[in-house]
Specification:
Structural class: alpha+beta
Bound molecules: flavin-adenine dinucleotide
CATH superfamily of the domain at 7-45 and 67-72 and 106-173 and 276-352: FAD/NAD(P)-binding domain
Strand content: 25-35%
Order of helices and strands: EHEEHHEEEEHEEEEEEEEEHHEEEHHHE
Helix content: 25-40%
Distance between the termini: 45 Å
Radius of gyration: 20 Å
CATH class of the domain at 7-45 and 67-72 and 106-173 and 276-352: Alpha Beta
Low-confidence stretches: 357-361
Length: 361
């Protein structure tokens, strides 16, 4: 068995890294989380946590799962509309007794539910990873401010622009999916009531979704197809963050009104990227989880769920394996085919619903 003296460093205090930290600490491991921001970033918008993600939370820590259920709302209706507002299809979602629901919830509520269970000294802010070196006995992380950490295993949970990934699979490029998306959360009781998830099907270069996240709030996402200007290649955020009025005018008035009621400073925008499936998830004593390992198009809402599943799997193998090398091999054997499938189907759906795919430089 792996000794509980095993020192594990996690780079990135997003949902994947913080959930893994919680699971490892509850098994008695020594864990340090390093986050480049001063504090874990609890901002963000609405998230659809599909049932697989809720199961990964429930199996690892049922209390966290319950808290997230109470913070959000079960999805109860999928409605597809055309750009004139006409209903194309309307599918109610039912749940058996004791079945875990898919949950619509604010990202802030998820991250806070995870962070509240960690010891206060576990997360180190202002710790931006610069480089990693592997030694005969373990691994060293070097931070921008000159700090170093030495341990037995380093986990890269540092998101789509992962620095740790370079130590596992060098030279990974982002692939541009041809979309620019704006998102926001507004007070609303009527447009998206009772767990409704409304999609305005793609047409005339735009697409939008709106969903209830509980607490009389609605999340919205507005996507436009866009070729990136040369100077924006590889950038996550657009140079001009405003929503073009001409594009917004393609939505029906009621949907447009929800978006227009959002204070501009609360709207987030970003280009959509994914990465090609990686051939490995670990190298030596460095392993990747979450978006660092398999950033994907949001079309199937599998991103956060996949990070929770990774965390659960890695924590279970570190708890049950004879040594760290065996745990990493078992983790990769289990997760690689699953995350490749998520990446493949998410990208396929992106292309099917009409996104123009372009390679980022
Ligand atoms: C438009 C959009 C909609 C989405 N909708 C959904 C949805 O409905 N359902 C769903 O399941 N998923 C959704 N996703 C995907 C989901 O948001 C991500 O998969 C998930 O948040 C990834 O979590 P993570 O912890 O792996 O990475 P992140 O949340 O990106 O966390 C990475 C952390 O690492 C830190 N970091 C980065 N570099 C360094 C460094 N060098 N040193 C130290 N720290 C570092 C960052 O500051 C950050 O805190 C969506 C994504 C997008 C873009």
């Amino acid at each position: 068995m792996i000794s509980s003296n095993c020192r594990i460093g996690i780079v990135g205090a997003g949902t994947s890294g913080v959930y893994l930290a919680k699971l490892l600490i509850q098994q008695g491991f020594q864990v340090a989380v390093f986050e480049k921001a001063p504090h874990p970033r609890t901002e963000g918008c609405g998230i659809f946590l599909v049932q697989a993600g809720m199961k990964a939370l429930d199996r690892g820590n049922p209390e966290i799962c319950k808290r997230i259920i109470h913070s959000g709302v079960p999805v109860r209706l999928f409605e597809f509309r055309n750009l004139r507002g006409g209903v194309i299809s309307s599918e109610p979602v039912g749940y058996a007794e004791n079945e875990l629901p898919g949950i619509l919830v604010h990202r802030k509520a998820i991250l806070e539910a995870l962070l509240d269970t960690l010891p206060p000294d576990c997360v180190h802010g202002n710790a931006e990873l610069k480089s990693v070196t592997q030694t005969d006995s373990g691994v060293m992380a070097h931070f921008k401010d000159g700090r170093q950490w030495e341990g037995d295993l380093l986990v890269g949970a540092d998101g789509i622009l992962s620095n740790v990934r370079q130590s596992v699979v060098p030279g990974v490029q982002l692939s541009y999916l041809g979309d620019l998306v704006w998102r926001g959360v507004v007070p609303d009781q009527t447009f998206c009531p009772d767990g409704a998830f409304i999609v305005y099907a793609r047409g005339r270069g735009v697409y939008a979704n709106f969903f209830d996240i509980g607490g009389d709030r609605t999340h919205w996402g507005f996507f436009i197809e866009k070729d990136q200007d040369t100077f924006e290649r590889g950038a996550l955020r657009p140079h001009d963050p405003s929503i073009p009025r001409k594009e917004l005018a393609k939505l029906p008035a009621a949907a447009r009104a929800i978006i227009e009621s959002t204070p501009p400073e609360q709207i987030v925008s970003r280009y959509s990227y994914d990465i090609d499936p990686l051939p490995h998830l670990y190298h030596g004593r460095v392993v990747l989880i979450g978006d660092a390992a398999h950033a994907k198009s949001p079309t199937r809402a599998r991103g956060m769920t996949a990070g929770f599943e990774d965390a659960l799997s890695l924590a279970q193998y570190l708890t049950s394996s004879a040594n760290v090398d065996a745990a990493l091999a078992a983790f990769e054997a289990e997760r690689l085919p699953i995350v490749h499938e998520y990446q493949r189907t998410s990208r396929e759906m992106s292309m099917k619903i009409g996104r123009v795919r372009k390679r980022a430089a």
